[in-house]
Design a protein that fits this description.
The complex is a heterodimer of chains A (about 350) and B (about 270). Chain A is about 75% helix and about 5% strand. Chain A has about 350 residues and is mainly alpha-helical. Chain A has a single domain, classed as ABC transporter involved in vitamin B12 uptake, BtuC. Chain A has a two-stranded antiparallel ribbon. A two-stranded antiparallel sheet of chain A has the order 2-3. In chain A, a hairpin with a 2-residue loop joins strand 2 and strand 3. In chain B, the strands form three sheets. A six-stranded mixed sheet of chain B has the order 6-9-10-3-11-12, sandwiched between helices. In chain B, strands 2-1-4-5 form a four-stranded antiparallel sheet, covered by helices on one side. In chain B, strands 7-8 form a two-stranded antiparallel sheet. The chains are: A mainly alpha (about 350), B alpha/beta (about 270). At the A-B interface, helix 11, helix 12 and helix 16 of A face helix 2 and strand 8 of B. The structure holds adenosine-5'-triphosphate and magnesium ion.
Chain lengths: ~350, ~270
Amino acid sequence: MTDTSSTTGSGETPKAEEMSAGFSFGDFLRSPAAGALMGFVVVFCVFAIFGFSRNFLSIPGVTTWVNFASLVGIIAIPVGFLMIAGELDISTGAVLPAGAMTVAIVSGHYDLPVLVGILAALSVGALVGFINGFIVTRTEVPSFIVTLATLFAVAGLTLYLSILFINNTNSFYHAPDWAKSLFGGKVYGFNSSVFWWLALVAAFYFFLHKSPKGSWVFALGGDQESARNAGIPVRKLKISLFMLCSTCAAFAGALQVITFNSATSQANFGLIFNTIISVVVGGVLLTGGFGTVMGIVFGVLTLSIVTQAIGFTEIDRNLSFLIIGVMLLIAVLMNDTFRNLATSWSTSKKK
Amino acid sequence: MSDKKPVLELRKVDKSFGPIDVLHEISLKVGEGEVLCLLGDNGAGKSTLIKTLAGVHQPTRGEILMDGTPTSFSSPRDAQGRGIATVHQFGGTYPLMSVGRNFFMGMEPTKGVGPFKVFDRAKANRIAVEEVQKMGITRITDGDRLVGGLSGGERQSLAIARAVYFGARVLILDEPTAALGVKQAAHVLRIVNEAKKRGLAVIFITHQVMHAMAVGDHFAVLIRGAIAADFRKGDKTREEIADLMAGGESMADLEANIEGYMETHDGHPPQPAA
Ligand SMILES: Nc1ncnc2c1ncn2[C@@H]1O[C@H](COP(=O)(O)OP(=O)(O)OP(=O)(O)O)[C@@H](O)[C@H]1O
Ligand SMILES: [Mg+2]
């Protein structure tokens, strides 16, 4: 009935046909993860071709970007949850170093057990998340501004407290062997954080797409008023999502310090861009209500290849930002297409 | 009135939002197997009143009684849990989610055990499609379809179907027929009558006299947040009800006004105030 090709542009027409032919294939194509996967495959292939002679496909070539992806990815998925719920969190750029410094100060400087340090870091994250969520749910201030404020507040506090406690903005910490292998070890060049990321991806996937509460996150971004009327604990859920996000950022900080044996209290502004780009390239709708965990995973992987693995190819390193910019634009445009495909799909199928 | 046991009763309920008083001393009852039509002009406070009954707002003063005992609904979930299902005037559906997930939002069916309970998609889709079809929307056959692709009336029917499915004791409908076609509106009225026969208490808000007359047993008119009239079917004529719905002004006068205006303005209807 509805002509899908008119909304998708001429280049998409064959896809619409395939979609009604293969059912499960069509199912996948309608999901926002499809675009992210295609983007990943294209980038991977191009980089593999240009990087064939420069070890892009070697173990160091692959682990470089996968290791980077794991730390970004641990944070990007909960950032994506927030975006699906209609919120944004940019305070992660300060929470990650705060988490790293907490471990370094508590377990390194004060010699407390490493688990105490990690727990302290997670608590710092949870607290920042709670503050973000509390302010966002009690006021009408957009979360972008609230988390911008906490980004700077936490960054400043981290610097100040680092000087106060250890009289240094950087710190070193060597975790005991068991902790080193659990949180900061290497398996064939892959950091422990990669395995933590995989485990978290599974847990997050289950939560968002399988558990009954996953729908609630989408409902928040879809229509908050209706969600409240339907009895969804809007405030509690939002605060929990902010807490999850900051706790994950702090956990990434803890993994980082144990992996690299050092921590810095400088805010990581790049991380903010990396997480948000990954989420958007991963097919999450900027206005909320739509997105998938697997899409975000592909978004993170794509971003990591372009920024980290470009040195293993013949592509000029300086082009990586250009590629990211173009990719982001394509992703945003594609996301609209995929959403239209998704909503009009059944009408076109029935004829 | 005395023959029907009141399910929900309000006693002198006030509701203010900060300095704005929206409801004043509202006292109302609705009994089992009875349809209460809530009438009133725009901004009279009808939606605010039913939101108070649905647990969205807490009354500032006054009492809510359920089955004769004073209660308070701490949240919409609380009210839902006690069998009060509401279709709110706006929204109620999520465009980028499937029919099945929309239908069961907040009341998700699960399968599995312990922490690994998963959303039972097959069951949700099956029930949602069945219930929506009962509302006369036969075009919806796939519970995985996103609601964004449905028409406004189809979405409204989905929201009503959901309330009918979950409403065990009380069904509250805030202008349910506003977006509906003639056939679907008739369906809704029939469903209201069915719910009434099953012994549910129904609160029905509408601006259409025809719809109110078709199902109402009991009518309450709100004017600026206070009950201006409260009467039973047969106590007033259709014209009197229409006048009350227009906020107390006589419909005949209003119509005469418009006609008079058209005569003096070359047949153009009056421009809405800017
Ligand atoms: N949350 C709120 N805060 C402040 N004022 C409110 C709030 N909700 C409603 N009001 C005010 O209460 C009054 C009644 O609103 P309500 O939505 O209950 O009217 P209504 O009778 O449902 O009108 P309509 O027929 O247009 O749907 C309006 O003047 C509105 O501005
Ligand atoms: Mg209203």
